[in-house]
Amino acid sequence: MLHKYTATAALSTLMLMLCASCADDDLSYADDNYGNFDALSEIIDTRYCFLKEKGIDWERTSAAYRALITDETNEYQLFQICASMLDCLEDGHVNLVSRFTTSYYRKWWTDYPQDFDLRTLQQDYLDFRYLSTSGMYYFLFPENVGYVYYPSFSTTVSELALDYVLAALSESKGLIIDIRDNGGGVLTNIDTFMGRFIDHEIPGGSICHKTGPGHDDFSEPYFFTYQPAPDYRIKYLDKPIVLLTNRSCYSAANAFAAVMKSLPNVTLIGARTGGGGGLPWTSELPNGWSVRFSASPLYGPDGELTEFGIDPTEGFECHSPAEELAAGYDNILSRALEYLAAFPDPE
Amino acid sequence: MGKLLRICICAAALALFPAALRGGESGYEAADIRTASFGDAAEADLSRPVTGCYSLEAGRRSAVSQYLAPVSYAGTQYAASGRWEKCMPFAPQRAMMAFEAHVDGALSMLNPRRNSSMQALDAEFAWNMRAWWRLPKGFAVSVGGGPELEAGALALLKNSNNPVSVNAAVALGAAASASWTHLIGRVPTVVTLNLRTPLLGAFYMPGYGETYYEMYLGNHSGLVHCGWPGNRRKINLHLGIRLDLGRTAMEVGYRLDWQRAKANNLVYRSAFNAFTIGVIPGGLGMKRPAAPQIRPF
Fold this sequence. Notes:
The complex is a heterodimer.
Chain A: H1 2-20, H2 33-47, H3 58-66, H4 75-87, E1 95-97, H5 107-110, H6 118-125, E2 131-133, E3 136-140, E4 145-149, H7 159-168, E5 174-178, H8 188-197, E6 202-207, E7 222-226, E8 241-245, H9 252-261, E9 266-270, E10 278-284, E11 290-299, H10 322-326, H11 331-341
Parallel strand pairs in A: 4-5, 5-8, 8-9
Antiparallel strand pairs in A: 1-11, 2-3, 3-4, 6-7, 6-11, 10-11
Chain B: H1 2-16, H2 18-26, H3 32-37, E1 51-65, E2 73-87, E3 95-110, E4 117-134, E5 139-155, E6 164-184, E7 187-204, H4 212-217, E8 224-227, E9 232-244, E10 248-263, E11 266-281
Antiparallel strand pairs in B: 1-2, 1-11, 2-3, 3-4, 4-5, 5-6, 6-7, 7-8, 7-9, 9-10, 10-11
Helix pairs in contact in B: 1-2
């Protein structure tokens, strides 16, 4: 009798669990034009972190673009409608990725002067005699000013390479770090750089994240710091540093500008950076398209939201007009050289 | 040609499982199975061999981690597992322990549109102690519990700052089993049903929109949750048939490994349905054991 009950209980448990395994936690949207659009709309509505800061009425925006869809809308047209809707976020971290194309919001830099030309830099200032390692170009100007150009935070900077670079420039009276056209990359590279310019722990800013689908569901800010590099590493301390920026400095480069600006010996020269102060997140639609968007806001050491860019140091905003660059003159770099040349040589 | 094939198969069977064929000569009856494995010997005289089963598993896994994507991915998963059982020395006829280890991996699980791929790797260890009872007509049941440890990850490498969903948990769980020993022809056979489920413990779940960079910076609050059946349900069920072939035994079966965890407005769900095939070195001791022995079935 007992084994009969045992068998019944085991069978019941099995059935219960099998039923439970059918519980649906998937996106509850159909894989059709409306389903995919609605899924995208909900993902942004529940996870995008700057709707409030940017004053976007997402429900209204979404409804306006949904009205453009019909049953006859093909895949390419649907992609275009979705991409156009995402452009309303005015965020360079937002992409819609399909097998046939990827959408980008480009106006964060296309509507502004470029203020930089790589050929002019290499030919007219560095005379093609620069050294390069670990994604950095470096050079010592005749004015005894060191120069480092770091075009992308996507290239991981090795500690050893940075030792060589800073050792080569250690006798300079000042250092120019040029991050113009740096579109960002890996944030941990900031730690590597910052450790060489500080001799004590400094505030790095704060970060928070969405805790739920509501527009106000955010975690408490988490404040983080940067630590100095170990003593055996070569540092560049107690001498003036200039950071060159333009509108195409984005994401990690923008975050680097925010924290460098907080150092007393650092001057930002150039144009306001492009922003990108939200850590990107990726999700997926029923048809397999990926959507990337800002999910975690980053705040600078002064508590300012970095999404809208970092201004140059007051009195140091300047531009490098295209015609001057074409003629071999980089106004931003020349201004930095002039500024640092005025400092005395180190003893 | 067909005759030659039959001779080859018989020869191979004789070479691989000679004891199985000898079993036919020994004249075992269903009632003899018990006395062969557990006779009237004094408790202290009984040996308590470990019954270890080493299995390979293959089946279909489906998983959805809302940290990675709100759609489910599914594909073929393979696993290797081991299960060891032994009667306890202090009460061999009433207490037993079992240890289980599983390593599962899936190289490519696909989304419903089959245009994106996810990878999975998981490991699980569980030890438990159970009380067991032998029932009439070859039945035995056991109930108990013990600690479980699970760690693994789902990877969707196309994602930006959320490319991996870590699944980690430690728990005290309940375990139960039922078995039925009988003869199929002349082959002693044990049908087993093993069931485990966590009851109380802790599990990891990242914040709703929390990136690994934020964790790297040092924000670890809210990542570990107290787990109970209200927010983390899991069942590991294995139904198997063990055939005692003498010096060795084999097991074929089915496994369901299902779980669902919910915290921080995120759901992690996984289901693995697999066919299992395993070997039990030394057999089940039902065919002329060298000494009186006791096994928990």
